[in-house]
Prior knowledge:
Strand content: 35-45%
Distance between the termini: 72 Å
Number of helices: 4
Largest sheet: 9 strands, antiparallel
Number of domains: 1
CATH class: Mainly Beta
Structural class: mainly beta
CATH architecture: Distorted Sandwich
Shape: globular
Amino acid sequence: MRKIILAGLAALMLAACGQQKQQQEAPALTKSGLDPAKFVTTVEGKETGLFTLTNDNGMEVCITNFGGRIVSVMVPDRTGTERDVVLAFDNISDYQNISSDFGATIGRYANRIGNAQFTLDGQTIQLIANNGPHCLHGGPQGWQYKVFDAEQRNSSTLTLSLTSPDGDMNFPGTVSVEVTFKLTNDNAIDINYYATTDKKTVINMTNHSYFNLSGDPTQSTVNHLLYVNADQMTPIDETVGVTGEVRKVDGTPFDFRTAHAMAEEIGKDDEQIKFANGIDHNFVLNTAGDLSQVAASLYCPETGIKLDVFTNEPGIQVYTGNFLNGRVVGKKGIAYQQRTATCLETQKFPNTPNHPEWPSATLEPGQTYHSECIYKFSVE
């Protein structure tokens, strides 16, 4: 009888040790509450995961290599309370099954290419229309749905790489891409995009994070203060494609050269606002590629959190979440309603391949494409 009791005790102790070991080995939740285990799967033979970047201030940024997506950004508000300021999903299954651009690395061509076609060296390239008559964000299976190879170089730096074959979404050329996210000690996410090709092609990359600086995605961002360092913008038509015109912002709802609430403009009786159901427009930056100049900024009076954007690109798309409609449920079970986020996408102009007078998006063999975007957070 004594032997049976001892054996039973031993079994219980082994089971307890096993449970303790499992608990120790289980990945801890991130500061933003994400479970890394929910981001692990295999897509087309490549493993996905969640990568966490931190800096000396304790700021945290989480990124998945599925689509090169920023999943969470934890920054302090004016009271020191840390808030997650981006919309996203909290598991890989939703990213796979729900069409979205949340936090994504966009390619080959961010924004719209008109009528889903362009001409390159006299040859018409027919793309796939996935946004009315236009090709948006690289087509229905753009890079936001691809698994990047990931290398976390240190606690603050992640490099993602991808090879896009010739004919991917009908774009010409085999393109090799590298995207590096670096979280700096001044609370900035410095994103550098590099690409090469073996055949003449077009490329335009951006990050499509949906920012809500209140940290509460049930709240609209229309009362955030927006600043855009731009004297001009590129108007759109009823299909939300650019017309080819470049228009001064003076006297229009697109004059954000002095920071003010977006709500003051979105409600105006203006054809451009009606076409986009809000703001979904490219601004022609005054910065001329100078990374020391602020291209745009967003500020939440409630929390004091400010986001400054710097870029070497000629344009920035401001999108006020016009097509969010409450049908998509994100982190913490929150349904994302209209205008509960604002996107600031640094870029070449939309439909540039069909407008040779605009800054070129062409990439040739032997050249290296380089685009940089810095999202810098602070408190006021």
